[in-house]
Write a structure and sequence with these properties.
By secondary structure, this protein is of the alpha+beta class. 44% of the residues lie in helices and 33% in strands. It is built from 3 helices and 8 strands. A hairpin with a 2-residue loop joins strand 1 and strand 2 (41-46).
């Protein structure tokens, strides 16, 4: 039973570290528009959904595409349907905008609601402390405790 608990605790520690590293890396990897960008993917949290946009240059009529737009003096990722593409390589969108096809980020790849909710919560300092720093602190305190126990065990042997 002790061995099973030890293995379970080790797995939980690894998962906590992976979880924290992923959250912090998402928060730190941003492009010039302020959005997370990893390789050929742009990451956004919109309406508590984690949106993964795959960059692409192959745009066709009828595609739902994502592009940067300025809303209230900030860049925001907006999506729209492509109505048509004219000979100047401009996309005419459902919302009436005309945008050069080279300015389009790409097409939606995936929407993940739970991760979006977690990442949106991390913008709040208290939630960041509770859900990111507290698990790391628990693992750290556990290892300090194990270190102290080991030192005491060695001292008793001497």
């Amino acid at each position: 039973m002790k061995k099973v608990l030890k293995i379970t605790w080790n797995i939980i520690q690894v998962l906590i570290i992976i979880y924290v590293v992923l959250i912090i890396s998402f928060m730190l990897t941003s492009n010039r528009y302020g959005y997370g960008e990893i390789g050929k993917y742009v990451l956004d949290v919109d309406n508590n959904q984690f949106l993964v946009i795959k960059k692409t240059k192959s745009i066709k009529t009828g595609d739902i595409v994502y592009y940067y737009s300025i809303v209230k003096e900030k860049y925001k990722i907006v999506y729209s349907n492509v109505q048509s593409i004219n000979e100047d390589n401009n996309c005419v969108l459902d919302n009436g905008n005309v945008i050069n096809c080279s300015k389009i980020i790409g097409k939606s790849h995936r929407k993940i609601p739970i991760i979006g909710y977690i990442l949106n919560s991390m913008k709040n300092k208290i939630c960041f402390l509770l859900f990111c720093m507290l698990p790391v602190l628990v693992v750290f305190i556990y290892h300090v405790y194990k270190f102290i126990v080991e030192i005491n065990r060695i001292k008793r042997k001497e």
